[in-house]
Write a structure and sequence with these properties.
Bound molecules: adenosine-5'-diphosphate
Low-confidence stretches: 261-268
CATH class of the largest domain: Alpha Beta
Mean pLDDT: 92
CATH architecture of the largest domain: 3-Layer(aba) Sandwich
Strand order of the largest sheet: 11-12-7-13-4-1-3-2-18-19-20-17-14-16-15
Structural class: alpha/beta
């Protein structure tokens, strides 16, 4: 059994499976934990560990505390490099949480203890890391520090209307600088295109100039590989899931990771899928709205959750489950709060954004729990925050990564106290991921891989 090489801290649950999926694809045996495991002693037999937090939209101080707890646990596992994973659309506000968490992790990793009776002493630098949400396979590219979603700037994409983290500025150097005391710089694409040595030289120049966080351009998988190579000795990497594709090569090169270990071994490891099929969707992203429409237009069975009815005290959870009970034999069934921006705004105007988000997440997670109790064993959840709430309601502690449905979204195998002794297949879909026919395609992939 080898010590894990890479320790990852993901700020939401869909992002965690997205990252784990990329690591598995590039040859790292990966274990994903839900939250920081309480069992400190149990060594984990894997090349990479992803700790999934639900820290993207909580208060910055709480996000920092949870991330530092994850860091300490990962350090206890003996990992060589830390990876802080956030969304490929850089979901955050001016308060954070990407900046504050990055800063806290840098402080912790670059702080040497002098011994008893002495205070902590910083090493020569305040630390240096990168930031790069690029994931070109999923149409997230960074050029001249600006994030593009497909063909448009982040600020012109549907992300400008996100219920919790509206992104109205595509200039990520500026966005990151607003969240951190450290100086933010840029490694532009002309440097990235010249390869790992040029990137490393630019890192050194930026650091000499007092930069603590370098935003890095990337528009292709080749860029990710060059950047990955340049990150071999960096203690902390902060990024979306794309950068993970370029890291395993470093350990393969120095012989610490078998080049022969293949993601397929894990993908095939999930037991055959059984039981009823259901989708729970709390994402209001453009892609999810299109997926809900497509599913309904194709004759899919669907039940809409109305946030205002929830707020008024209607027992929407029981109504949804009573409806599902009569339909599950003909499933998959879809239960959704997904709505277009105008409808979301109208709800938020009455309830406030935080309360609306919270009551919808609570209701959908209770519905998911009820569905599993009714025999659902193949569960697809759409929405990062929504997935976090559902995974917590189901009491899931670990996820095994299985077959990929679309880039960033694998099926996973989990155990839940809600269905003791049974295997549950779950897929957690980040809002803007997945093709339009994702909701029907997902179950076909599972059938094919089982
Ligand atoms: P995504 O991955 O698309 O960002 P999330 O689940 O992370 O999706 O975030 C969507 C948020 O919007 C959640 O907090 C959810 O509860 C909330 N929400 C879902 N439907 C509605 C609605 N109809 N009105 C207001 N808020 C909603």
């Amino acid at each position: 059994m080898n010590k894990p090489l890479l320790g990852c801290i993901a700020d939401d649950f869909t992002g965690a499976t997205d990252l784990a999926n990329n690591l598995v694809r590039s040859g790292m045996r990966t274990v994903q934990t839900i939250g920081v495991p309480t069992d400190l002693e149990a060594p984990i037999d894997a090349d990479a560990i992803v700790v999934a937090l639900k820290s993207r939209t909580i208060a910055p101080a709480d996000a920092v505390a949870q991330s530092l707890a994850a860091l300490r646990w990962l350090q206890g596992q003996g990992v060589q490099q830390i990876y802080f994973k956030y969304c490929s659309t850089f979901d955050s506000t001016a308060q954070g949480n990407i900046g504050p968490v990055t800063e806290a992790l840098l402080d912790a990793l670059h702080c040497k203890k002098r011994g008893p009776g002495h205070g902590p002493e910083h090493d020569n630098s305040e630390g240096f890391t990168i930031a790069c949400p690029a994931f070109p396979e999923n149409q997230r590219t960074v050029f001249k520090g600006h994030l593009f979603v497909g063909d448009v700037l982040l600020s012109d994409s549907g992300m400008r209307d996100h219920p919790l983290t509206p992104m109205r500025d595509a200039n990520l150097v500026r966005v990151m600088q607003a969240q951190t005391r450290r100086k933010v710089g840029l490694v532009a694409h002309d440097v990235v295109a010249r390869g790992a040595d040029a990137i490393r030289a630019r890192f050194a120049a930026l650091q000499a100039d007092g930069v603590g966080v370098a935003m890095v351009d990337a528009i292709s998988n080749a860029d990710l590989m060059a950047i990955g190579q340049a990150l071999a000795d960096m203690k902390l990497v902060t990024a979306g899931s794309g950068i993970a594709l370029g890291l395993p090569q470093n350990w393969q090169r120095n012989g610490r990771l078998q080049t022969s270990s293949s993601g397929n071994t894990q993908a095939d490891a999930l037991p055959p899928a059984t039981g009823h099929r259901a989708i729970v969707s709390g994402s209001c992203s453009v892609a999810t709205n299109a997926q809900v429409r497509d599913f309904k237009q194709g004759g899919g069975l669907a039940f809409a959750v109305n946030p205002l009815a929830l707020a008024a005290g209607t027992d929407v959870v029981s109504n949804a489950l009573a409806w599902a009970q009569t339909k599950l034999n003909d499933g998959p069934v879809l239960i959704y709060a997904t709505a277009e921006p105008a409808a979301v705004l109208a709800v938020q105007a009455q309830l406030g954004a935080a309360r609306a988000g919270e009551i919808v997440e609570q209701a959908l997670s209770k519905i998911a729990l009820g569905l599993v109790t009714l025999g659902v064993r193949q569960l697809l959840v759409a929405g990062g925050e929504t997935s976090g709430a559902v995974v917590q309601a189901l009491g899931i502690q670990r996820m095994t990564i299985g077959a990929q449905i679309d880039p960033g979204v694998p099926w996973t195998g989990v155990l839940s106290p809600a269905c003791p002794g049974a295997h549950l297949h779950m897929a957690l879909k980040s809002g803007n991921f997945g093709s339009t026919d994702f909701f029907s395609k997902a179950f076909t992939v599972l059938k094919a891989s089982a």
